[in-house]
């Protein structure tokens, strides 16, 4: 029941209110930052940086989980990389990556370390692969190259990605979690539009295609060859 204050009349026409509110969104991101052995904080040399976004299984508040897969896992096994690696953790088990917060973290690291801004690379697996596609759309001028492993790939994103950014996509043909058709369709569309895109499709492999993808030494050689033409 609608109860009107005494002396008030019921609204008889729709009302359109023109107003504004300034919002502030904060996010706490734990992260690993790998520095190559040649890195010197006070040295003249600047280094590439690889931003790695993990999958849903590594989300939460235990940072050690980030070491389960991808480049962080390889680092724990003794692999040495020629570039910095930034690996943040999504704090939410059942939520999407806050890509704006990730970009703020990335900008902060770039501002405080010896990073070559023409050689910032992006990669992610599964949920992090989907977030990588999203970041490529939101920040088309930030990355020199991108590699996506078994990530959801909304087809409309194809029109918003920087056409000069090389892309490498990996997916298992028997993926039951994120169907390989996600990558098939996106790669086909990107090639039709003239993008520089590579596609590695693993026959007989399921959702864990990241194991083979991130153990592909050619991937890291490919990354370091990429450089933005301009800022």
Automatic annotation (TrEMBL):
GO MF term list: hydrolase activity
Residues that span the membrane, as ranges: none
Keyword annotations of the record: Hydrolase, Signal
Keyword Methyltransferase: no
Domain Dienelactone hydrolase: 102-207
SUPFAM superfamilies cross-referenced by the UniProt entry: alpha/beta-Hydrolases
Domain of life per record: Bacteria
Keyword Protease: no
Annotated protein name in UniProt: Dienelactone hydrolase family protein
């Amino acid at each position: 029941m609608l109860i009107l204050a005494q002396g008030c009349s019921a609204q008889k026409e729709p009302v359109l209110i023109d107003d504004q509110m300034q919002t502030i969104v904060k996010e706490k991101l734990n992260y690993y930052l790998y520095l190559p052995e040649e890195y010197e904080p006070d040295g003249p040399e600047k280094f590439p940086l690889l931003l790695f976004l993990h999958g849903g299984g590594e989300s939460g508040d235990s940072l050690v989980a980030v070491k389960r897969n991808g480049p962080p896992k390889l680092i724990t096994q003794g692999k040495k990389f020629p570039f910095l690696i930034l690996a943040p953790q999504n704090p939410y088990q059942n939520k999407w990556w806050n890509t704006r917060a990730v970009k703020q973290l990335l900008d902060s690291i770039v501002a405080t370390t010896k990073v070559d801004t023409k050689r910032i690379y992006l990669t992610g697996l599964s949920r992090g692969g989907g977030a990588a596609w999203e970041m490529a759309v939101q920040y088309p001028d930030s990355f020199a190259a991108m590699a996506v492993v078994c990530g959801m790939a909304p087809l409309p994103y194809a029109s918003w990605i920087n056409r000069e950014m090389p892309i490498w996509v990996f997916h298992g043909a028997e993926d039951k979690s994120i169907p390989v058709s996600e990558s098939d369709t996106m790669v086909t569309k990107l090639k039709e539009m003239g993008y520089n895109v590579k596609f590695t499709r693993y026959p007989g492999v399921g959702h864990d295609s990241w194991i083979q993808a991130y153990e592909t030494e050619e991937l890291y050689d490919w990354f370091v060859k990429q450089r933005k033409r301009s800022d």
